[in-house]
Structure formats: C-alpha cells, structure tokens
Amino acid sequence: MKFRIDRDALADAVAWTARTLPVRPPVPVLAGMHIVAGGEGNSDRLKLSAFDYEVSAQVSTEIDVEEAGTALVSGRLLAEISRSLPPHPVEVTTDGAKVMLRCGSAKFTLLTMPVEDYPTLPEMPPAAGAVGSDEFAAAVAQVAIAAGKDDTIPMLTGVRVEIEGETVTLASTDRYRLAVRELHWKPERPDFSAVALVPAKTLADTAKSLTAGAEVSIALAGTGGAGEGMIGFEGGGRRTTSRLLDGDFVKYRSLLPSEYAGLAEIQTGPFIEAVKRVSLVAERNTPVRLSFSQGEVVLEAGTGDEAQAVEALEATLEGEDIDIAFNPQFLLDGLSAIGSDVARLSFTTPTKPAVLTGKPPQDGENPNYRYLIMPVRLSG
C-alpha cells in the first residue's frame, strides 16, 4: 500500500473515525482503524473505518494512490499522530507488518494488527430520506439534553425517532423532563413510516459531526421492513450506523397537557442569567422558586437558615398568580434549547408539569419544540 494525502484531510478523516473507537475494546482488533487505499471502483479514494459492535463509522476521502492495499493500525495512536503532523503532504506506505507515515522531516512507524480478524462492518439499512444537516443537528441537540444517563434503564437513554410521511418527531425523557421536536424532511416515499429508539449520545455526536455536507441521508427500515435493529446516517463522505435500543418508549404524548391554566412570557437571555445567579445559593438538589404575578416574576433560592438570593424580572402573565419551583439545571437546559428570544412557560397547577417553549412565529401556531419539566414540590 502506498498513497499520498493532504495533512488536514488525513487529520480530519482520522479524528472523525476515531470517535467510534471503543475505550475498552472487547477484542484487541476493535482498537484498530481499518485503512483501505484504492481498490475496486475506488482507485483514488481512502476509506477509514472503526467499529465497536454497536456503532460503526466510515469516511471516504480523496488520495493519490500509487499502490492499493489494506492495513489495520491502532486507531488512537493514528489519531494522535495525524493531529500533530507538520503542515506538509503525508505519504503512507506499508512495509511487511509495519505502516510508515512520512510528513516533511517527521517519520512514524506503526505496527499493524491482523486485518483478517477485523469484523465486517454492518450494511447500511435502506435509505429512507434526507434532511438538512444543520437543522437536524440543532433538533437532535434540543432533544438529547432530556435523555436519561442511567444505563440500568437503557430505554430512557435513547431518543425516539418517529417518521410519518414528511414529518420526523424526536422525543426523549429521563422521567423528570421531556423534550419533543418536530421537523420536516424529504422521505424517499411519501407514505414512509418508521419508529426507532437511538442511543442519545450516539445520535447527538453523529448529528453534530455530519454538518460538513448540506444534507444528512437517514437509512432506516420502514415498519416491518428488512434491516430492523439498525439506523444509518450519511453525509459529506461520512457514514455511520448504530444498533437501536430495545424496549417500549414512554407514551409521551399523553404527558403533554392539552390545556393550561396560565401562561407567562419572559425575555430568555435575562431569564437565563437570573436563574444562574439565583441558583448559586441553591444547595445540591434544591429548587429555584418562581413567583409569577402581573408584570413580573420573582426568583428565589436558599432557605432561612442558609444563603439566600432573590431577583425580580419583567414578565407577562395570563391567568392567576402562581408559585412554582424547578430544578435549576433542568430549567437552564430547557431555556438554552428553545432557540427563541422569548421564553413561554405554560402551567396548569404548581404540582403538575409545565411546558417551556419559544414564542411561535405566528400566534395560534404550535411550536415545533416543547420542553416539559416536572416542578419540585414546595414544602410548607
């Protein structure tokens, strides 16, 4: 194997692929990055792959090939080397059981691993449709914040992806909050429908890393179709697959209130800053209290025997005055995700979930992002 490649192109491709390398590989070869230079139908392409039996990543980039070939080397070592090379073209060659990288006057020799022991990457499921990469990344980020972190309940660590025609709905919950985002996409078939539960961390990392291309192609079997248990994403010469999570997701639509007793609107930026300031005195797991009345909201944290903080902000209120309390970090997560300069908080009672949204573009329209948050009961 012998090829030349631009230093930045190599560093970028290796860094992206290395994200999938397992921290503690179940078998040694999974710590390797699979390199294919040239070959059938890809005479001027380099393919780098990583796989940990759950998630696979593969990137394709242009190179000058002198001699086609395949090799398997330590992925983490290759990533560290690629990142620190001087700004010159890189020449990669194999010599027996070694791979050599030359870049300017720098030369590295890496030992290879047995390429025949490397597992075959899973096939991409059938292409289901495409969505704008930036919008997809933003939507996934809005929803992934509410996914659970407890691996003992795998179902809650995922994002539910529901596809019905031209609408994709993303939802996640950790039982204390629920995030739901709807977006439009271009399906391969107008009647396409599918449901998948994708690990939230994998989905968030993938969506964020595929913004180099204008669109992301989503590969997913339709309801009852072949290739179940997998989802694939492709864009900008990069493709990744992930195993889906098993389990029945919460029937989340029934959690969203159909009507509200009150609605408050506050400028998002000042609200975020005030919550941050007031929560400085909130001991671990203690809430920030919000007292809404006509024209203002008063934020409070701390108790009589400890440090206390109080701050008032302008707010509009429709409905009766209400005192309600939230976990400050959960509240900040939602405020940071709504993507609007006005935060709208809709509530029913101080003990029932409230829904945080941005202000919809036109009154009467449903917002495409909703963040439901459970209040903390106030004692006394």
TrEMBL record:
GO terms for biological process: DNA strand elongation involved in DNA replication. One of its GO terms (molecular function) is 3'-5' exonuclease activity. One of its GO terms (cellular component) is cytoplasm. Pfam families: DNA_pol3_beta, DNA_pol3_beta_2, DNA_pol3_beta_3. Residues 253-377 form the DNA polymerase III beta sliding clamp C-terminal domain. It is found in: Cytoplasm. The keyword Transmembrane does not apply. Residues 1-122 form the DNA polymerase III beta sliding clamp N-terminal domain. Keywords: Cytoplasm, DNA replication, DNA-binding, DNA-directed DNA polymerase, Nucleotidyltransferase, Transferase. Residues 132-249 form the DNA polymerase III beta sliding clamp central domain. The keyword Transferase applies. Confers DNA tethering and processivity to DNA polymerases and other proteins. Acts as a clamp, forming a ring around DNA (a reaction catalyzed by the clamp-loading complex) which diffuses in an ATP-independent manner freely and bidirectionally along dsDNA. Initially characterized for its ability to contact the catalytic subunit of DNA polymerase III (Pol III), a complex, multichain enzyme responsible for most of the replicative synthesis in bacteria; Pol III exhibits 3'-5' exonuclease proofreading activity. Belongs to the beta sliding clamp family. Forms a ring-shaped head-to-tail homodimer around DNA. This is Beta sliding clamp.
